[in-house]
Amino acid sequence: MIGLDTNVVIRYLVQDDKKQSTAATRFIEKSLSTDAPGYINHICLCEIVWVLQRCYGVAKPQVREIIEGLLTTKQFNVENVEVTWKALRAFDANSADFCDALIAQVNIHRGCEYTVTFDKKAASLPGFDLLG
């Protein structure tokens, strides 16, 4: 398994820099396989969502489709895929950020009763409780 940094995945997805996008595409399509997948951890996944939304203006429905694509592509191995699917479903059904949805699901998975927050949007997610 080979770890992937956010910038490599972003270049592959958005194809916005000729040199880096070409290198990322060549690497992902020629070097990664079901036997040697690229690993995308939760931090990288959060960064991918943030960059897509903030830097490229990608709307939530398309972000959901992109993350779903990463989760279902056999050449990628996403950290704790079951928890990530739950977070994606919560993100899709709520106005909160994907990162908050993932935080809640990771914490639930680790045995937390709930996660306290001052963030009102995050508090609308299952697994969060508004503090204060």
Polypeptide structure, described:
This protein is mainly alpha-helical and 132 residues long. It has 7 helices and 5 strands. Helix 7 links the parallel strand 4 and strand 5. The relative contact order is 0.12.
Please summarize what this structure is.
The chain has helices at 6-14, 18-31, 42-54, 60-72, 81-92, 98-109, 120-123, and strands at residues 2-3, 38-40, 76-78, 115-117, 128-130. With 132 residues, the chain is mainly α.
Biggest beta sheet attributes: 3 strands, parallel
Rg over CA atoms: 16 Å
Structural class: mainly alpha
- What percentage of the residues does DSSP assign to strands (E)? 5-15%
Number of domains: 2
How are the SSEs placed, and which strands pair?
Layout: E1 2-3, H1 6-14, H2 18-31, E2 38-40, H3 42-54, H4 60-72, E3 76-78, H5 81-92, H6 98-109, E4 115-117, H7 120-123, E5 128-130
Parallel strand pairs: 1-2, 2-3, 4-5
Helix pairs in contact: 1-2, 1-3, 4-5, 5-6
Keywords:
two-stranded parallel ribbon; mainly alpha; globular; 7 helices; 132 residues
